Amino acid sequence: MTSTSTSQTINNSQASTRKPTSWRQIVLRQFLRNRGATIGAVLVLLVVLVAILAPMLAPYNPIEMHPKDRLRPPSAQYWMGTDHYGRDIFSRIVYGSRISLQVGILANLFSVILGMVIGLTAGYYGGAFDGIIMRFMDMIFAFPATLLAISIIGLIGKRSLTWVMIAIAIVWIPMYARLIRGSVLSARELPYIEAARLIGVRDARIMWRHILPNVVAPVLVVVTLCIGVAIRNTAALSFLGMGAQPPTPEWGLMLYETKQFMRMAPWVTIFPGMAILITVIGFNLIGDGLRTALDPRMKVD
């Protein structure tokens, strides 16, 4: 009996001295338990590593032409074959990963920053200001995203990846603004926000130091999902001739340039299409995993 009570006392003392699990540890634990999220993280990590190590991984210059080797099938010399100009498809896909990640991340970063400013101010102050801003956001949000991006690029009259990024960012500003505004409307009524107002804390400090941390979680999930969508939309716009221009090694442009050869040389479209598919699936799986991990109703063992 004495030894049993002693061991129980030791266990209780160890439990009492154990550090409480932090929010970040809980989220990370839940994320790693999600098999799909782990697979998505591995896929995205591989794409990122390929983009970083592109000069070391690509055996050929991605824009260098080899007319004698045009439409060569996959072989030991050309791992993924060549296109109609004799360019190495593997090298072009490797360098194309840099372009796709750059467009996806920068477009989302730009739209998140502007959407955050608009959503925070509209949700916090409310009233007529909120109504005017949200109606304007609704007008933009009413147009199909791809059609609106095409319209923006058409009005500008310049076809390049830079304008593709700007067009995609403009299209998604209303989505982030509405999402952040909805979270702000509930967060601004919390007791500690009311207390901060009563003691004279400035509105800007309340918004950025007290309200913003409460809206980060849903925004992080949407950003992760939208990076994959941005990569897909960039490829679609390039396929339509509105984005990257030859000889840029961009995945959508690779599909556009070789679509007439897909029957006689299917590898010219299969490999760029797989690159888009793998990258988009990776970001979608991460987004779904974050959505589950950041759910406040999740169970913690």
Task: Please provide a written account of the structure.
The protein is mainly alpha-helical and 301 residues long. The chain has one domain: MetI-like (MetI-like fold, Orthogonal Bundle). It has twelve helices and no strands. The chain has helices spanning 2-17, 23-33, 35-52, 54-57, 89-125, 127-141, 145-156, 161-187, 191-198, 203-239, 251-258, 267-293. α5 (89-125) packs parallel to α8 (161-187). The two termini are 30 Å apart.
Which key terms come to mind for this protein?
301 residues, mainly alpha, MetI-like fold, 12 helices
The CATH architecture category equals: Orthogonal Bundle
Task: Return the domain count.
Answer: 1
Contiguous helical run count: 12
| First and last CA, distance | 30 Å
- Judged by helices, strands and strand pairing, the structural class is mainly alpha
Number of strands: 0
CATH class division: Mainly Alpha
Whole-number mean pLDDT: 85
> In percent terms, what proportion of residues is strand?
under 5%
List the helices and strands and how they pair.
Elements: H1 2-17, H2 23-33, H3 35-52, H4 54-57, H5 89-125, H6 127-141, H7 145-156, H8 161-187, H9 191-198, H10 203-239, H11 251-258, H12 267-293
Helix pairs in contact: 2-12, 3-5, 3-12, 5-6, 5-8, 5-10, 5-12, 6-8, 7-8, 8-10, 10-11, 10-12, 11-12
Give a concise summary.
By secondary structure, the chain is mostly helical. Helices cover 73% and strands 0% of the residues.
